[in-house]
Each structure stands twice: as structure tokens, then as C-alpha cells.
Design a protein that fits this description.
Shape: globular
Structural class: alpha+beta
Strand order of the largest sheet: 4-5-1-6
């Protein structure tokens, strides 16, 4: 007996600023070509073996065990003095290896739903997110990518998770009520509590300190945060004798719209991954923790875009660090 399987068309979802992104290259105050291990996919390695001349020799000499050999300070060997890519300049964009061509884009697939986004470790992505007008919105359309087959039971669970996530988006987008009330609806903490989901700044610092450092820039920032806490006294949300949370927030200048968009985007990137490994509360509260760390220590990070960029790079791009945070936040 033949039983037909229902075929679903893949749906592609993207945030409203996705298609506006374009690498700003040397105009970036940072570079994604320093401080990262750069994988070279096999197809690119094969193409590089065929490049003739002096530049071809340089290509082959700087690949080892499927990676580019980084220079001192973890600098890509093909990043020139103007922070421009020599591979791009010599061979064109099509010659870039997969990770260099796609970064900071990411993709998640949940059955017949594909979600794309931009990693906030990129300052241009963070700027586009914050500068968007109105609530974070998404575009959806059919695409030709093959579906990742899941059974009907898993499909129902996925739909329940995405439906719950949609409720979070709707609540955060409701500008008819104060942001603090929207945050309360989604996370269970009022938005004017800059320490949530903890009681004080020391607890936020303690959790950040547990993560494995990506480098000197993070270490220096964490040192400045520690000094800020030590010189501010006992800063607790429920301590009437201490400075209040608003005073401790200091230099933060996140608008309500920027905050709502950032929170929704962090939920977009992480919450549905509970389908793979659970910890839905840890993933939800991660968005709140990230936002409060960014606005609480905006000055120490060097501004709101830099705060988002550094927190994303330190936390979101390390499986080990995300495990530390989500486990701690899931148990609250």
C-alpha cells in the first residue's frame, strides 16, 4: 500500500533590515578578519590550488589544516594595511571562502521554515537593527531550498514554539503601553529594573566573568565594569540605601524603540533553538540579560553599538559561553 507524504514548500523568513546589509569594509571601526579562526572550505581550497602566480603561492602558503594561518594578534594574512581583503582585491568576491562571503549572516532551519539573520557581532548589523523605524518586522516568502523533513508530531511542537515566540514579538511591538510593561509581559520583570533577571550589578558581572574571553578587548571592558561596580557601592534593586537603578544606568541612551527591537531580535535568534536542546526559559531570559548588560554598562563598552557588538561576539559566538549563560538563566 502506498502512502503519500505531504510535501511542504520551504518558507524563508528574514528580519526587516536583512536585505539592507552591505559590508562597510575599511569604514568599519573593527574588522571580522582579526581575532577569529577562519575556516577555508574544501571547494575554496581546491580553487586556491589553481590560482597562478605570486598571489597563488601566497594563498597556498597561508592555509594549514583547513584554516588560514593567522598573523600576530590573530590577524588574517590577507588583510592589508587598509583593512581590505587581498583575496577580494585580486580575485573578486566570488573567490572568497564560504565563511568570509557569508559572515555575519546566519541561518536556522526548522522543518520547512528557514530563518536568516545577521549576527550582531558586526557593528553595521547592530546599527541597522537599532536604526530601524518602528517595531522589528519580518518578511516571509517561499524559496527553493529543500525542506528539512520532520514528522507531524515535531511539526506541531515547532508550531507551538513559534506561536509562543510570535506572542513575545506582538507584546514588545505594542507601543501603546510603556516599554517597562511590555518587558514585564514577556520576561516577568519590569523594564525599569536594569539588573533583571538578577538583583544587582555584581550578579550580572559575575555571570559575564564566568565566560571564556575572546581576547584583550573583552578583558579590558570587563575590568572597567568591575571598577564601575566597586566604586558605585552596594548597588541592588531592592536596597533603599543604595543609588537607584536609573542612576546606576548612567550613560545608556537606548530609546524604547531600540530596546524593543533588540529584545525581539535576540528572541528571534535564540528562542526557537529550544526545539533542539530545551532550556526555553534560559534562551528567553538571555535576551533580557543581554539587553540589561548592554544598557547598564554602555559607557564601559564604548557606546550602544559597541556594547551590542562586543556582547554578541563574546557570548553568541561561543557554544561554551552560551551553555554557561543559558544554564544559569534557565534555573532562575
Amino acid at each position: 500500500m502506498y502512502i503519500s507524504r505531504q510535501v511542504y514548500k520551504m518558507i524563508l523568513r528574514k528580519p526587516d533590515f536583512y536585505d539592507k546589509f552591505k559590508c562597510i569594509a575599511s569604514r568599519c571601526t573593527d574588522t571580522c578578519c582579526v581575532g577569529w579562526e577562519i575556516d577555508v572550505d574544501e571547494a575554496s581550497q581546491e580553487a586556491y590550488r589553481k590560482v597562478a602566480g605570486t598571489f597563488g603561492d601566497k594563498l597556498r602558503a597561508n592555509i594549514e589544516d583547513g584554516h588560514f594561518k593567522l598573523l600576530p594578534h590573530d590577524r588574517c594574512p590577507f588583510l592589508d594595511a587598509n583593512n581590505l581583503c587581498e583575496i577580494y582585491a585580486n580575485l573578486g568576491e566570488g573567490a572568497l571562502c564560504d565563511i568570509c562571503r557569508e559572515h555575519p549572516r546566519f541561518v536556522e532551519v526548522y522543518g520547512d521554515i528557514m530563518e536568516r539573520g545577521l549576527g550582531l557581532c558586526c557593528e553595521e548589523a547592530a546599527r541597522l537593527l537599532l536604526e530601524g523605524e518602528g517595531p522589528l518586522a519580518f518578511t516571509t516568502k517561499e524559496c527553493d531550498e529543500p525542506e528539512d523533513e520532520i514528522d507531524e508530531e515535531d511539526r506541531e511542537i515547532r508550531d507551538q514554539v513559534l506561536c509562543e515566540r510570535e506572542k513575545f514579538f506582538t507584546a514588545l511591538a505594542d507601543s501603546t503601553i510603556p516599554l517597562s510593561e511590555r518587558v514585564l509581559q514577556v520576561f516577568g520583570y519590569k523594564g525599569d529594573n536594569v539588573f533583571a533577571p538578577f538583583n544587582d550589578a555584581r550578579e550580572i558581572y559575575a555571570l559575564l566573568e564566568k565566560t571564556e574571553s575572546f581576547g584583550p578587548a573583552w578583558d579590558d571592558t570587563l575590568s572597567r565594569i568591575k571598577v564601575r561596580i566597586e566604586t558605585s557601592g552596594s548597588i541592588m534593586q531592592n536596597d533603599a540605601s543604595a543609588k537607584n537603578a536609573t542612576a546606576f544606568q548612567g550613560e545608556s541612551d537606548f530609546t524604547d524603540n531600540e530596546s524593543a527591537r533588540l529584545l525581539a531580535y535576540l528572541i528571534y535568534r535564540h528562542y526557537a533553538k529550544c526545539l533542539f536542546d530545551g532550556r526555553e526559559q534560559g534562551k528567553l531570559q538571555f535576551a533580557l540579560f543581554f539587553w540589561n548588560a548592554a544598557r547598564l554598562f554602555t559607557k564601559e563598552f564604548g557606546g550602544k553599538v559597541n556594547a551590542i557588538k562586543m556582547l554578541s561576539r563574546q557570548l553568541e559566538y561561543s557554544d561554551e559561553n552560551m551553555e554557561i549563560l543559558e544554564s544559569a538563566l534557565d534555573s532562575l
